Amino acid sequence: MALDKTIHSAFARATGPENVIDDPVRCRAYECDGLTGYRVVPDLVLLPRDAAAVAAAVRVCAEHGVAFVARGAGTGLSGGALPVADGVVISLSRLRRILEIDPVNRRAVIEPGVTNLEITAAAAPHGLYYAPDPSSQQVCTIGGNVAENSGGAHCLKYGFTTNHVLATEVVLPDGSIVTFGGDSPEQAGPDLRGVFVGSEGTLGITTKITVRLLPTPETVRTLLADFPSIGAAGDVVSDIVAAGIVPAAVEMMDTLAIEAAEQAVHAGYTVGVAAALVVELDGPVEECEVQFDQVKRICDRHGCTRLHIAGSAEERAAIWRGRKAAFAAVGRISPDYFVQDGVVPRTRLGEVLDRIAAMGKAAGLRVANVFHAGDGNLHPLVLYNAAAGETERAERLSAQIAELCVELGGSLSGEHGIGTDKACSMPKMFSRDDLAVMQRVRDAFDPDGLCNPGKVLPTPRLCGERPGPYRPHPLEEAGVIERL
Amino acid sequence: MTTAPAGRGAFDAHRPPERDLLDDCVHCGFCLPTCPTYQLWGEEMDSPRGRIYLMNLAEKGEIGLQGPFHEHIDRCLGCMACVTACPSGVQYDRLLESVRPQLERNVERSRGDRLFRNAIFALFPYKRRLRAAALPGALYQRLRGVPAVRRLAARLPGRLGALESLLPPVNVREAFATLPAHTPAVGERRARVALLSGCVQDVFFHRVNEATVRVLAAEGCDVLVPRDQVCCGALELHAGREDPALGRARRTIETFERLDVDHLVTNVAGCGSSMKEYAHLLADDPEWVERARVFSARVRDVHEVLADLLDDGGPRAPRHPFRGRVAYHDACHLGHAQRVRTQPRAVLRSIPELELVELPEAELCCGSAGIYNLVAPEAAAQLGERKAANVRSVGPTVVVTANPGCLLQIGRHLGTDLPLLHPMQLLDASIRGTAVPVR
């Protein structure tokens, strides 16, 4: 049952009629985010232009009991911005002003629709940058980064989004506007800013963010090293850390991922090699030079077959382009794929990769691996062909891989979030009590359950049947219920 | 109601968008930041990802062509910045090329829109008609100095107003001048080329063609300019008017294929892009497919030819230094569609002391986009303003770009204080040691 006309006009008054999309065809463009397997058509899409309009729209939701889902650039990979049927999508794409760059205090104030890379571009003239760098940084928005507590290759040294957000203005589910955190890094009282960052859009909508900026490192050295086995590359990572070096980034890619990335950007990766490591060091020149030599020796010791050192900013950018385009580039070697995101203790990387390979073989599916090796954050990509009916099998394998990470003492998600995709796996990682506490926190912010419902925490409906194209409910298959 | 036997979903049977090409899109969104309409409006349906999503739905028959689908495809500038940005290798150019003719065939436009578009296509591809229009144009430009006429012009409705203000300074002598059919190479011959003189280019930017011929000759090329050449069909092709575009493609092939030359050269980004596409466009036509393939393989942008000559033996003609900052704007159909980015820069750098500067948001279209600034003047004006601001931000002494559409559009928004040229004009001035022109 769709929303009635009076509610439509209330939204039109809240945001201005030119900022409302109600045509069903246009709304379909919003039916999924970066995870296309889940699709729900929203009843309305709102594109407010400022925080006041966001608050006004949320007040209409509260008043009429309408569920709402915030959306940034729609690049999320866990279905966190999946719309709710008969609900509204609140797109923040028109809140995209950079309000302030404060080079003295090294911070920036921006609206949620500004992209991650735009912050760095605006800060660069002052010799500053914004450190967290998700691979999609050229398109993903800071609002989405805050919601997902996004990471990125350089989070190994610099920390995740939450370590760089000083304050955030939030529209709460009742439509009031509050600010969590403040200009100084440490605030008295409970850390509500910390609760909000990474809450995946379930506690409110951020409308203004103050982030920390860092000075651009004096020097950056980047190398690309090939290895005859994943194990050898893994040992290099362990040895680098054991040597007391804190690299800015250590990334690993396997054969399939290398092949895809090289096809996409021709960045000089060696096609056919078993594993490649991208190691980047940054900081003062002398320190970098000494440590870079150490890293090279470690690589040699573990049978590195080719060591390519970026000789210019362009070469360095090319190496990163290859790495950052890897997910999307896999589209070149497989018609469909799932991007998985799990974490294992770094020491168990070799073990988890062997088991993933065995699971892939058993399922008859290829798995490509791209990962932040330095912090044990894996991104196995399960390749499949939907047209050949492999979807369900791939989905199952993908979920099994995430749960394997938990089994090995890791986490269901490193940086992509739980969203729709992994809500049903949460009980594998958390006890009933853990989940109940999370639910109580959520209820304190959103007592009516209108704010991005169905995400993060498992619900019986969600975990029994999935939104999207029709498929029989398990109970329907068992002959217990029938669809009318 | 039934659809044609081999039609797919809402599309008819003649070249619907290919399923494989649609499936290439993984919905990652990397195209959003470089899409001009997404930059303007922030709406998913006006992004490449959203448009492909809608194409997908139409191909599955879940939505029709009329209405929202048509509108959002119409709003695409066809700049192909998304093709450059896409890590998955989605061929949006091919998708758009098949969808636009589908819309032209199957969707009824409003009467006003139809008449306006018909008028555009009855004028621009015809050199003679453009020349005829240039006469009252020149007269009008003198009259524009009269306050009453200016006031009247300011009241023209949107699209006509755009047409009026884009009107380049018309020089009657130039509009009617023709290039020599044969210009011999200066000194020993290094190559033999044939030049497409273009329609708008030859009437409104004849000086660019003259400069191009002089530069090519000075660099050791014999330059042929066939007199019987017609419009290459680029404007119609990019607007989805497939049949007339293919007719012009065949005539252009006929005219040029019999010439004994190394390269078919163009100095217009849009024309080069479409001529390189002929092989694909005529792929279904057994009589023409091979001829089109041979033709397309010989097409080069003038900068490609000159950059090759620079690599192969360096500059022939001595250059006079140019002391100034030159901002090079990548025309979309040169940078994104033909992937020609390094060559124009290399050619400009062959001018001593010239300082080349890059523009912020270089990948973003200026809003010209074929006939876009005529049919969607408001969006085009916003993009033009943005481009002009980006150009001013780098403080150039001269701005250069290799497409007449961009020259008109940027010129309109940049004002007249900055010289705005085709790179060939700057190079020509450097070789001849003459003053750098303003337009």
How would you characterize the overall build of this protein?
The complex is a heterodimer of chains A (484) and B (439). Chain A has helices spanning 5-15, 24-28, 51-64, 116-123, 142-148, 155-158, 192-196, 230-242, 255-265, 285-301, 313-324, 326-329, 349-363, 391-407, 426-429, 432-445, 460-464, 474-477; strands at residues 20-21, 44-46, 68-71, 88-91, 98-102, 107-110, 128-129, 165-171, 177-181, 205-212, 214-215, 219-227, 249-254, 275-283, 306-309, 336-339, 342-343, 366-372, 377-384. The two termini of chain A are 15 Å apart. Chain A is α+β, with helices and mostly antiparallel strands and 484 residues long. In chain A, strands 12, 13, 14, 15, 16, 17, 18 and 19 form an 8-stranded antiparallel β-sheet that branches. Chain A is globular, with a radius of gyration of 23 Å. Chain A folds into 4 domains: 5-91, Uridine Diphospho-n-acetylenolpyruvylglucosamine Reductase, domain 2 (2-Layer Sandwich); 98-215, Uridine Diphospho-n-acetylenolpyruvylglucosamine Reductase, domain 3 (2-Layer Sandwich), CATH 3.30.465; 217-327, 2-Layer Sandwich (Alpha-Beta Plaits), CATH 3.30.70.2190; 334-418, 2-Layer Sandwich (Alpha-Beta Plaits). The model of chain A has no long low-confidence stretch (mean pLDDT 92). In chain A, β5 and β6 form a beta hairpin. Chain B is of the alpha/beta class and 439 residues long. Chain B is 52% helix and 8% strand. In chain B, the strands form 2 sheets. A 5-stranded mixed β-sheet of chain B has the order 1-3-2-4-5. A 4-stranded parallel β-sheet of chain B has the order 7-6-8-9, with helices on both faces. The chains are: A alpha+beta (484), B alpha/beta (439). The A-B interface holds A 21, 23, 25-26, 28-30, 32-34, 36, 45, 47, 73-75, 91, 93-94, 96, 113, 115, 117, 136, 138-140, 263-265, 325, 327-332, 335, 337 and B 23-30, 32-33, 42-45, 49-50, 53-54, 57, 62-63, 67-69, 72, 86-90.
